[in-house]
Each structure stands twice: as structure tokens, then as C-alpha cells.
DNA sequence: AATACTTTATTTATATTTTTATAAACTTTA
DNA sequence: TAAAGTTTATAAAAATATAAATAAAGTATT
């Protein structure tokens, strides 16, 4: 075997330490020893090597807990970088982060229609490559590319069955055409990941994150890890049968949550209401599409427009009924309202709670805390970065970097 | 430190091997090496020690897969025993198994009313102790006691908040008063465990098991492990809001699945039907309680009684609607119909499938297989035994046994 | 039938990891 | 304020696990 391969097993622990320090800010050798169930000398050796290799720096002494103060270590922010990409049906965002999740280049936003757009993948690839070039960061310094996007995604194969057809594995295509290991996942899943690692649900192990967008998504954290189900379609909250009647959904059924309470549907109801002469501060030009109205509606509600609030309350109550079902089945510690609609979460809160009181056994609703995202619109980008680091201990990145380091 | 403690870490691997061989029948050193990510010499050493200690025996050669045939090892059936206990509200079952899940003593069944019965715990403890004594098996040879029971259970503390108040930890009480480490869990959870380890859902990682009994329970296997939720109440399928109206449930709400489709409710509907003169082979004496009627109804349905089948079909459709919701959220590989009602599962199957077609997105229902338990009424007892062995690698049992062995 | 290739098992030498002992730095108790 | 107890860190010795080499027992190929 080549000498390069000899170190894989040994560098495994080092990758695990880097990953942990990315998530945990700072830790002591003793803490890492407990966490990984390895002896302190083993940890100390790995940490010292990582310091010489430039991945880890000392981070001062933590307060004593009754004995000698532990020397803390943290990851060196500029040792590596992470490229995060967030896509929705119309828009793409690209942002480069360092290992402390600080942006190291301006965010790039551009229009990218995913549906029926054969050029979308080429455009995205070019934009990523030129963004990296403009940033001045060497590709070898980028730990990976994480991409969040709508659609039905096979994470292990790296395929999105709905958008961005790469004639096989999308991640393989992007890895090849950028030279950087790429990971993809569902947008709602990444938002959940962000909330659990760096957001309002930090360190919780049972978290349900509602992605209130044009649709209604659900990201599930079970046992501290993203849960995707057997074929990757878990969390289809938006199409459970909520009521027998109700308007017809895109999926062909009646009574779906998405057909009753998504921001898009609420916007359409607003347009109808205006046509029927409802008193509201909202205006509607016939050539506006629903998404523009949606954004306007959220702002109007926050500014106290009664009609907008009424529409949102109605949606909130239905969302609450769905959450009651979710609580009964999953018994989560936390439900987080996140995504685009998070900015009207305070208005939604009251009707949601009302529905929970009506439809939940108290013993169950008592065990779940309902929270509003603080990451807001950044959640998906941060989740995309987290996705890269979640896979870091399985990749051989650190080994490669180390190899170049030791030669240099 | 005492010399006894020195071996704990080393015997960890041996306990893991015993546990694996309990679940897997027979494995080779190479297979165990792959599984535990340990070198073959390490595994071989541990296996040889376990053979000398009497826990493991050779199990012949497996067919070649293109090279030297592997020598298989299996656990020695009579090296240890497991005591399984299954309780419902009225009846207790006790059964002693060997390490191949074969009964080594006759099953003991006795009446044990759990509700408002201050003596229940004492009676159970005495029955367990005398059962073991009668079996002639030394207590030191029993790896543990596993108990499945209804109620709201804190597994880690070993407390059942509903029944068998032990003024603290029920498992601690029983461990002390029997001298054998005791574990408890919810009946539906144990049925799920049994189905996943030794039943129709063997080796599946995403399994939902419906416990069709007097109530409707749900045992969830997520990521290959029992899922209990944040406060242990996950899987409350029976009280999700299914319909706006519907009969009033014990829980105080309307439209609960349990109030519409549990075997107890179906039996009550049968009694009402008979009173109203419905044509049926079923008879009803006014002093019969619903549970007797329930058993009779299941048999009548299996014998072709139209009225019984009609009632069950009605229940099946409602169960199907609930399963549709479950599939949307969990996207399981398998749903198993188990418990007392499993014997009419074939009758339930058609209306359940019908409801799934109506309420499920095809993409989701396609990914889930609906199966009927083959373990039937034995599932809970086997699950109780599995519970003991699931905890085996965390216990120090094997070390103790080994110690006594090496002295002898 | 002979050769090449696989997979499994065993032995030995090497590498790694953990224990143990010692020291350092700090808190708590007497 | 001194003594005792904690927690963390480091350096040596001891234990342990692994990799490499070799052997054994089979299948597949020519």
C-alpha cells in the first residue's frame, strides 16, 4: 500500500476532534476524552498534532470545577472553509463560511429557475466555481460544498429526483466539476439541522422543525440525528388527511395541510378577498403573482392589517392541528417554526397553541416546547454548512490536508 | 482496585459477541470482525475465551463464498436463561427462555389485576420467585428479567407511572427482591422489538408495529432501535384527531382512533347490535363483559359471521386512515399488525389497504409493506426476553458469570 | 488437472493505547 | 492558613490490538 493510506485509521480521531470543535466552540482534552471514550494521552497526542498541523488553537483556560483548570482548544477559523448553497424554486444563494460559521465572502444571490430548466445545473456549477475564484480561497482549503434544495432527494446516492437532473448522481457531478466533495439534502432537513446545531433547538435530540415557506416542510431530528425514513420521504406533514372536505390539493387529494395553510394558499386567499372588496391595506395588481402577494401579506400582518392577520390565524389553527398529530406520534422535545414564514410566527403562535389545547392530550403537549427560529432565513445556508461538517469524519479531507501540510 | 474490576473493559467485547450471537444464531470470526470493526485476532481471542467459559460453541462450517469456509460459532443455549413476563390489565404470563428463545419451563399464567390493586406488586414478586424456584434453574444463571406491561413507563428509571407503584423505581424493587437485574418496557414497544428481532420484520430498521388489543398501541422502531420520544410517550396513535365528530373517547376528546376502532369498542358495538336484533351467530348474556364479547367476535368473524366482519371492516378502514398519517410522517419500511387482534388481520387488511389508497400519496404508500405478525400472542413474551439481551452489553452479567466460571 | 484467485484462520512482530505514577493547579474543608 | 480532596496534564511502563506474513481450505479459470 502507498504510505498515504497508512494514516487513515489514525487520522480518524483527529477528524472527529475537528468536527466536534466545529460544533462545540471549545473543549478540553479531558472533555474530549470523556466524549470519545479514549484515554487522555491519546486525545492529547491527537490535539497536539492538530495544533502543529494548524487545525486547532489554544483557547484559554476554562473556570475550575474544583480542580486544575482545563486548557481549552478550539478549531482555527481559517484552517478550512465551507461552501454553502441554498436553492429554492426560483433563487439560489451561495455563501462561503469559515470554521466558526462566519462569512468570509459576500453572499451571492442569483435567479435560478429549477423547474424545466435544462441549463440550471451548468449555471449553478459555473456560479460556484466563479464564486470560489472571486473569494480568493484555494479550493484545497474548502472542506466541502453543502447544498440544500427542494425536491425528493436520495442523500446517499446524491440524487435529486425532482430537480437538477445530472444523469446520475448530482453530488458526483458537482464533486467532479468543482473538485470539491459535495453533499446535498432537502431544504427542510437542512433547516432542522441548523436549528439543532446552532439555533434555538441547540443540543436537543428530538426536534421537529416546520419550514413555513411556499409549501409546508418538516425536518425531523430523531435521536440527535436527521431522520429521513425508509425511502427518504419521511416528514410529509403537508399531505396528511386533516379534514374530509377542504380544497383540492395539487397532490389530488382533499384536506391536505398544504392546500389549506401554506403561505402560497394564504396569498391566494388574500387575492380573492381583495377582489371581493375586503378592507385591507393590501393592494393587488392582476399581473402580480402569488409569491409577491405572499411577501406583502406577511409584512401587512406584522403591521397590524386585520385581514392579513385573520387569514394567518386561520392557517395557524390548521397548522396547529397537524402539529397535534405530530406531537402524538413523535413526542418531540421541541417544535421550531422556521423558514420564510418565521417572521409572522408570533401571529401564528396563538392559534397554533389553541389547536394544540383542543387536539392534544395534555400529558403530551406538556412535553413539547413550541419555539420560533432565530436563524430565520439564514437557517438553510447554515444547515448546508453543517451538512458538510456532519460528513467530515467520514471523509478523507483532513488526511489529505495533513499530508500537504507535513510535506510543506 | 479489586482484581474483579480489571476485566470489565476487556469483557465488553465478549458481552457484545454473546448479545450478537443471541440475535444472529451463528456467526464467523470474520463476520464479527466486520461487524464490530475489530481485527480478526482480537475477535478470535474473545471467541476462544468464551468457548472455554462455556458461553459459545462451534456451529459447523458455513458454505464457501469463494474461499475457505468460515467456522461458525453460536451461543450455548443453556449457558444462561432469560425470564420473560408479560402483563395486561387482568392477566400475567411468566416464561423462562434459554439463549435460543426455547422455553425451559412451562408458562405460568395467573390473574393479576393491575388497577387499584395494592397487592399486585407483592403477588408478582412472589410468583416470579416461586416460578424460578420450581424451574430448578439457579438464579445466577438468569441473565435478567424482562417485563412488558401497559401504562406510561420511564424506561431509564424503571418506573411505571400508571400501574405497580413501587414507591420509586419498579425495576430497582424487583432487582432487589429477586436478586436478578430487571428491565421493564411498554407492551407495544416490546411487541415491536420482538417483531423486529425474531418476527416478520426481522432486520428491518424502520418498523411500525400496531398492537391491536383492547386499546390500539404503537411500537416504533426507528433507525433499528426502539423509539420512545422525548418523555417516553411517542406512538400515541390512538388519540390523534381523526375526525371532527365521532364518539367521545376516554381521554375526553372526540374522533380518537381508539374510541372508534379498538377491539373493545367493536365489541361494544356488537352488543348494541345484538340488542337491536341484528342477525348474527353471536350471543350476548347481559352479565358478560365486553372483553368476552371481543374474543367471541374475533372468532365469529373468522368463521364468516357477516355482522362481525362488517364491524371489523369498519374499524379496519379507520385504522387505515390512521396508518396513512403514520406513513406520511414516518415513511416506514414495514407496518406490522400484531397483538390480540392479529388473528383477524386478514379481514382487516382489505379495508386498511382501501383507506391507504384513499389517503396516502402513492409515492409514500409504495414504500411501505403491510404485514401480519406470525408471533401472535407470543410476541410480548419474546419481546420481554429481547429487552434483557438488548441491555446485555451494558450489564456486567457476563463478567460475573465468567468470574464464577474461572474459579470453578 | 493445474493455476490463479478468494476467503478464513493463525502466528509473530510491530504499533498503538491505556494504565500507572507523578506533578501541577485549583477548590474545599478543618 | 494548612491540609485534604479534585480535576487536569505529562511521562514512563505495561498491556493490548493490529498489520503483516503465512498457512489452510475452498472456488473459478484456463
Task: Give a quick precis of the structure.
Chain A has helices at 3-6, 8-24, 29-36, 40-52, 120-135, 170-178, 187-198, 258-261, 263-275, 290-302, 306-330, 345-359, 362-365, 379-390, 397-407; strands spanning 27-28, 56-61, 71-75, 81-87, 91-98, 108-111, 142-149, 153-154, 159-160, 182-186, 207-212, 216-222, 225-227, 334-338, 369-372. With 408 residues, chain A is α/β, with parallel strands linked by helices.
Element layout with pairings:
2 copies of one chain form a homodimer.
Chain A: H1 3-6, H2 8-24, E1 27-28, H3 29-36, H4 40-52, E2 56-61, E3 71-75, E4 81-87, E5 91-98, E6 108-111, H5 120-135, E7 142-149, E8 153-154, E9 159-160, H6 170-178, E10 182-186, H7 187-198, E11 207-212, E12 216-222, E13 225-227, H8 258-261, H9 263-275, H10 290-302, H11 306-330, E14 334-338, H12 345-359, H13 362-365, E15 369-372, H14 379-390, H15 397-407
Parallel strand pairs in A: 4-7, 7-10, 11-14, 14-15
Antiparallel strand pairs in A: 1-3, 2-3, 4-5, 5-6, 8-9, 11-12, 12-13
Helix pairs in contact in A: 2-4, 3-4, 7-14, 9-10, 10-11, 11-12
The first copy, chain A, binds a DNA duplex (30 and 30 nucleotides) through residues 9-10, 28-30, 38-42, 44-45, 64-71.
Organism (chains A, B): Mucilaginibacter dorajii
Protein name (chains A, B): ROK family transcriptional regulator
Family (chains A, B): Belongs to the ROK (NagC/XylR) family.
